[in-house]
Please model this.
Amino acid sequence: MIASAQGKFLRISPSKVRLVLDLIRGKDALVAQSILLHLNKRPKEYLIKILKSAIANAKVKGFAADKLYVSKVLCNPGPMWKRFKAAAFGRAASIVKRTVHIKLELDLKA
Model:
């Protein structure tokens, strides 16, 4: 692991994020960035920020961005916000608003 970055308590469902993570896992850092820029999914906003942060962290350590690839991407569920809405016959239906923790690691190409 050359550089890493993470986003915590992001307000999106983990299952939606995992669909996009599979597209960039194992790709070059700049290729992954261009894939995310042209994607039409909501998690791309969070992932572009995290990827740019990891690339900047690698540049501070003295590594060039064109020699890096996405070696590891994790998406773990965070705490859930539990809410209730009114339902029929005086009952309450639960609403679960999910959050996610994303960790991205970059490494040098072999």
About this structure: The beta strands are 3-10, 68-77, 81-86, 92-97, 100-108. The domain at 3-108 is CATH 3.90.470.10 (Ribosomal Protein L22; Chain A). The chain has a mean pLDDT of 96. The first strand starts at residue 3 and ends at 10.
